[in-house]
Amino acid sequence: MRLPLGALLALTTAAFVTVLTEALPAGVLPALSADLGVGESAAGQLVTVYAVGTAVTAIPLVAATASWRRKRLLLIAVVGFAVANTVTAVSSWFPVALAARFVAGVAAGVVWALLAGYARRLVPAESAGRAIAVVMAGIPVALSLGIPAGTFLGGAVGWRAAFWVMTGIAVVLVGWVLLAVPDFPGEPSGRPRVAAAVRMPGVVAVLVVTAAFVLGHNILYTYIATFLGAVGMGGSVDVVLLVFGVASIAGIWLVGALIDRRLRALTVAATVLVAVAAGALGVPADSPVVVYAAVALWGLGWGGVPTLLQTAVAHAGGPAADTAQAMLVTLWNAAMAGGGVVGGVLLAAAGPGSLPWSVLLLLVPVLVAVRRFPVR
């Protein structure tokens, strides 16, 4: 069956905007911090407060808007991005920028809770995984292309211009959604369904995999520049991240081709690939070739993980799928924030060489829990 690419690519763009809005401050941090009159460590909290906004509001908002029409809710979230990025672009006072970033995080929580379910409803059940893979392709595209482009633009014409471009993309996306994305009803009741979602077979397993996998990934990814500096590749961070991004795109393509038949096996394969990569990075070596090969395996394994977990929790959640998605989004963002904290502690206590081994340790419960996934 041919997928409804016009609608799916609009959702892909929503994922792209979400990830790029989250990570863009990191790429323009020196200029942004100087312009707002704060240190770089304080300016870095623009990323943290975004994640906090997502984590603390996703479940309550999904519960409160469960009965809303899906298209209306998606449009409100995209407009939220446009407003938040505009306020960030014009702000000259750091607390205002922080508030705008929190609003952007709230919008992100709504978008992430909607995307997988929306994609599944656009296609027959046997094509749901492929549809979700198309939508989730916005994540590696944002990481491998969007962030470098935004960083370049920020350096060339100023960081505010990069946020204005994000506003423009969001405005175009509003029109695209209006024209190309069909509407669907929400649930008949807006009551919270957290308990019902947790009781669905397989949901807890998916959440355990999410917490451990995302925490492990972010412990290393957050401090990849520091790790590369320790192995003598501090000047190659941009190339290493490009390799990771390209491999991630290949990973999501492979997942999209097979996910509707091999979801559990693909999750195991992704876990093994990342484990092999972490092991290779954990063994001291003077060869950049080994590092590049390990990073390529890491990207190949990680690229499809968001699609795999979103699809798994959607299958497991059943009638409480939207709430289960919101729980996954909350846990994902908490694990992202936790990766920065835990990685920082490990870095101070044991040095950068400890980071890959912590990833290996966290992948053990992933391999145990994935056996309880709700599908083959």
TrEMBL record:
Major facilitator superfamily (MFS) profile domain sequence ranges: 7-376
Keyword Transmembrane found: yes
InterPro entries for the chain: MFS (IPR011701), MFS_dom (IPR020846), MFS_Efflux_Transporters (IPR050189), MFS_trans_sf (IPR036259)
Subcellular location per the Swiss-Prot or TrEMBL entry: Cell membrane
Membrane-traversing stretches: 47-66, 73-94, 100-119, 131-155, 161-181, 202-224, 239-259, 266-283, 289-314, 326-349, 355-373
Membrane found in the keyword field: yes
PROSITE patterns named in the record: MFS
Pfam families from the UniProt entry: MFS_1 (PF07690)
Membrane topology: Multi-pass membrane protein
Record's keyword terms, sorted: Cell membrane, Membrane, Transmembrane, Transmembrane helix
Name assigned to this protein: MFS transporter
